[in-house]
Amino acid sequence: MRQHSRQNGFTLVELTIVVVILGILAAIVIPRFAGASSEARDAVVASNLTRLRNSLELYRVQHHDSYPSAKKLAQLTGQTDAFGNAGTQYGPYMAELPVNPINDSNKVRVRNKMPNAPKGKQGWIFATTTGEIRANVTGVNTEGVQYFDL
User: Fold this and answer.
1) Which residues contact 128 (CB under 8 A, 6 or more apart)?
2) Distance from CA of residue 7 to its chain's centroid?
3) What pTM, to 2 d.p., does this model score?
4) Is 86 within the bounds of a domain?
5) β-strand partners of 66
6) 2 lies in some domain
7) CB-hemisphere CA count at 13 Å for 143?
8) pLDDT of residue 2 exceeding 70
9) From CA 131, how far away is CA 114, in angstroms rounded?
10) How many domains does the chain fold into?
C-alpha cells in the first residue's frame, strides 16, 4: 500500500481568492477614508474661526465695545487692561492664534473693512471696524461653500 504524503499550505487558487477579496475590500474602504481628511480640515477651519470670533467678541465686551486694532490684535494672546494696554485685568483670550490648515498660516491680515475676496498669504483676515474675521484663502469646502464665506 502506498501512502500519499500531504503538504501543508495554501493552493494557488486559495491565495488568489484571498487577494481578490482584499482588493475588493480596499476598493470600498479607501475612498471613504480619502474624503475624511478633507472633512477634518474643513472642521478645523470652522472650529478655529469660531474660536477667533468668540475671543474677539469677548475682547469687545471687556474693552468698551471696541475690537483690537492692528497693533493690538496680538493682545488676544496676552493680558490687557480695559483700554487695550498691557495689564492684568483681562485676557489672555487664547493661548496662541490658531493656524488655518488650508495655507498653514496663523498670521492675520488686518484691514479697516472686510475686502470682497481673500488676498495675501495670511491665514485669516480681520476687519477692525466690524470685528469680522474670515479664512483668508480661496477654494471651497467639501459642502461647496467658499472658505472665505464661512
Assistant:
1) 67, 68, 69, 70, 110, 111, 112
2) 56
3) 0.76
4) yes
5) none
6) no
7) 10
8) no
9) 9
10) 1
